[in-house]
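Tokens in:
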């Protein structure tokens, strides 16, 4: 599954996990993505991956 939001393009972010002894190891943070049924301009329904922030915005506008 592609972890990129269909609406805003939010995706995976990488950085360091820092231990108590300050040893750095690489890690990733994944976006909170969900599969949502969206209606297009032609009335057809498609499934797209959307982040939770965009889902909240879509719910507010509906």
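Residues out:
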């Amino acid at each position: 599954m592609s972890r990129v939001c269909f609406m805003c393009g939010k995706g995976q972010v990488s950085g360091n996990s820092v231990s108590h002894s300050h040893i750095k190891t690489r890690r990733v943070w994944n976006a909170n993505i969900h599969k949502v049924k969206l209606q297009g301009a032609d009335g057809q329904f498609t499934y797209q991956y959307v982040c939770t922030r965009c889902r909240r915005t879509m719910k507010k506008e509906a």
